[in-house]
């Protein structure tokens, strides 16, 4: 391990390191936050001796790291970043029981996942809303993650993952597919949309704001058409003059995964 620099920020010590493996990084986070090896061993359901081996060698699989992240009060991807990472003595998040973690690897073999090549994106829990082809997004802690190539997450840094509800975009997107959506941080220019892309849109269906995946088209510079691929579903229309308080286009689908 190499220490690059050390500074103080509002009473918190911040240290920047280059680590050989995640075990070294977890060790230092654990020490700064006064967490014992036994506590982390209990979280993982392994013996103290086995945990010591994992920490010494860095032999942690992704499931173990996802269980440790909330206890260490660190973002999962931050633990994976060994080149330049921040550790601070902020308050520890207490988790009475380790969360049940599930990682969606798609066609990627888990044993081939190298930390530098992939990133783990939280998967939002979606459910069907009152209107067909519209979905609600559940709030709360996300314990499902999607393994996504870092080449994609670097190209689209504001990435969110969602599970497809319904068949309105069949056969391109099927029920239970997982999509990666590049979220717009500012309202997009609707004059430059792509007719070939699928967009993640928000719509007031009369029951509240829901979300849907659709192709889009602008009519008369006023109406936004949300167009399904499956012709058994109806086209939805948004009057942009009436809906000035929010942008109906939230993001664009740039990645998808299907479980076979």
Based on the model shown, name its key terms.
single chain, 260 residues, alpha+beta, ten-stranded mixed sheet, three-stranded antiparallel sheet, 6 helices, 15 strands, 33% strand, disordered N terminus
User: Beta-sheet strand percentage?
Assistant: 25-35%
Assign a percent range to the helix content: 10-25%
Q: What's the count of strands?
A: 15
Order of helices and strands: EEHHHHHEEEEEEHEEEEEEE
Indicate the structural class: alpha+beta
Q: How many H/I helical runs?
A: 6
Plain-language structure description:
This protein has 6 helices and 15 strands. With 260 residues, the chain is α+β, with helices and mostly antiparallel strands. Helix 1 (22-32) packs across helix 3 and helix 2 (37-44) crosses helix 3. The chain has a 10-stranded mixed beta sheet with strand order 4-8-5-9-10-15-11-12-13-14.
Describe what is shown at a glance:
The protein is of the alpha+beta class and 260 residues long. It has helices at residues 22-32, 37-44, 48-57, 62-72, 76-80, 150-155; strands at 2-9, 12-18, 85-87, 102-104, 118-124, 126-128, 135-137, 144-149, 159-163, 178-183, 199-204, 209-219, 223-227, 236-239, 249-257.
Task: Lay out the secondary structure.
Elements: E1 2-9, E2 12-18, H1 22-32, H2 37-44, H3 48-57, H4 62-72, H5 76-80, E3 85-87, E4 102-104, E5 118-124, E6 126-128, E7 135-137, E8 144-149, H6 150-155, E9 159-163, E10 178-183, E11 199-204, E12 209-219, E13 223-227, E14 236-239, E15 249-257
Parallel strand pairs: 4-8, 5-9
Antiparallel strand pairs: 1-2, 2-3, 5-8, 6-7, 9-10, 10-15, 11-12, 11-15, 12-13, 13-14
Helix pairs in contact: 1-3, 2-3
């Amino acid at each position: 391990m190499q220490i690059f620099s050390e500074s103080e920020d509002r009473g918190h010590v911040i240290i920047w390191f280059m680590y050989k493996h995640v075990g070294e990084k977890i060790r230092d986070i654990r020490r700064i936050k006064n967490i014992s090896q036994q506590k982390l061993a209990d979280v993982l359901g392994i013996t103290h001796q086995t945990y010591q081996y994992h920490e010494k060698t860095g032999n942690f699989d992704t499931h173990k790291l996802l269980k440790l992240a909330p206890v260490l009060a660190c973002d999962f991807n931050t633990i994976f970043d060994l080149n330049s990472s921040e550790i601070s003595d902020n308050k520890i998040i207490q988790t009475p029981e380790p969360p049940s973690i599930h990682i969606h690897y798609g066609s990627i073999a888990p044993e081939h996942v190298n930390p530098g090549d992939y990133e783990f994106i939280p998967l939002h829990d979606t459910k069907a809303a009152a209107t067909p082809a519209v979905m609600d997004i559940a709030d709360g802690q996300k314990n499902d993650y999607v393994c996504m190539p870092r080449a994609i997450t670097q190209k689209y840094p504001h990435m969110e993952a969602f599970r497809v509800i319904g068949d309105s975009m069949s056969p391109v997107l099927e029920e239970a597919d997982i999509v990666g959506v590049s979220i717009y941080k500012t309202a997009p220019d609707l004059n430059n949309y792509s007719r070939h892309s699928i967009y993640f849109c928000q719509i007031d269906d009369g029951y509240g704001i829901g979300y849907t995946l659709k192709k889009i088209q602008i009519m008369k510079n006023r109406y936004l058409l949300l167009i399904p691929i499956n012709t058994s579903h109806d086209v939805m229309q948004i009057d942009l003059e009436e809906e000035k308080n929010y942008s109906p286009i939230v993001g664009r689908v740039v990645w998808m995964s299907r479980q076979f």
